[in-house]
From TrEMBL:
SUPFAM superfamilies named in the record: JAB1/MPN domain (SSF102712)
Molecular function GO labels: metalloexopeptidase activity; zinc ion binding
Provenance organism: Streptomyces finlayi
SMART domains to which the protein is assigned, alphabetical: JAB_MPN
Keywords for this protein: Amino-acid biosynthesis, Cysteine biosynthesis, Hydrolase, Metal-binding, Metalloprotease, Protease, Zinc
Enzyme class: hydrolase
Record's catalysed reaction(s): [CysO sulfur-carrier protein]-Gly-NH-CH2-C(O)-S-L-Cys + H2O = [CysO sulfur-carrier protein]-C-terminal Gly-Gly + L-cysteine + H(+)
Name this protein carries in UniProt: CysO-cysteine peptidase
Function of the protein: Protease that hydrolyzes the covalent CysO-cysteine adduct synthesized by CysM to release L-cysteine and regenerate CysO.
GO biological process: cysteine biosynthetic process; proteolysis
Pathway membership: Amino-acid biosynthesis; L-cysteine biosynthesis
Family that this chain belongs to: Belongs to the peptidase M67A family.
């Protein structure tokens, strides 16, 4: 289960909406070994695409150095889908290289009549996708 604060949840959704129609992407870091998503880090989608996201390699290197200096790890890796449901694509699975992370997808497309976005979380390990419940606290 992903337990996330209302503040971080709202920040991820706001970023997805702000970057629409392009996909948004980012990381939420937390203290190493705790599994607590605390520090919201929006990233630039270097692909600037409505169907694909890509972290800028320089920004990503800087982020990992910063997390290392702060004894943090990526707890959430998130991105948005702008025209499809919030479910990992084959490309998303290929790029899922943090087996301990929660992969959050926010869809800014009204694909199911439930409203203006979906927020879903997955574990992706060795190509296997497992959806997990999301608990928003605070």
């Amino acid at each position: 289960m992903l337990t996330i604060s209302r503040t971080v949840y709202d920040q991820i959704v706001a970023h997805a909406r702000a970057d629409h129609p392009d996909e948004a992407c980012g990381v939420v870091a937390g203290p190493e070994g705790t599994g607590r998503p605390e520090r919201f880090i929006p990233m630039l989608n270097a692909a600037r695409s409505p169907t694909f996201y890509e972290f800028d390699s320089g920004d990503l290197l800087k982020l990992y150095r910063e997390m290392d200096d702060r004894d943090e790890e990526p707890v959430i890796v998130y991105h948005s889908h702008t025209a499809t449901e919030a479910y990992p694509s084959r490309t998303d699975v290929t790029y899922a290289n943090e087996p301990g992370a929660h992969y959050v997808l926010v869809s800014t497309a009204d694909t199911d009549g439930l409203g203006d976005f979906q927020f879903r979380s997955y574990r992706i390990v060795d190509g296997v996708i497992t959806e997990e419940p999301v608990e928003v606290v605070g």
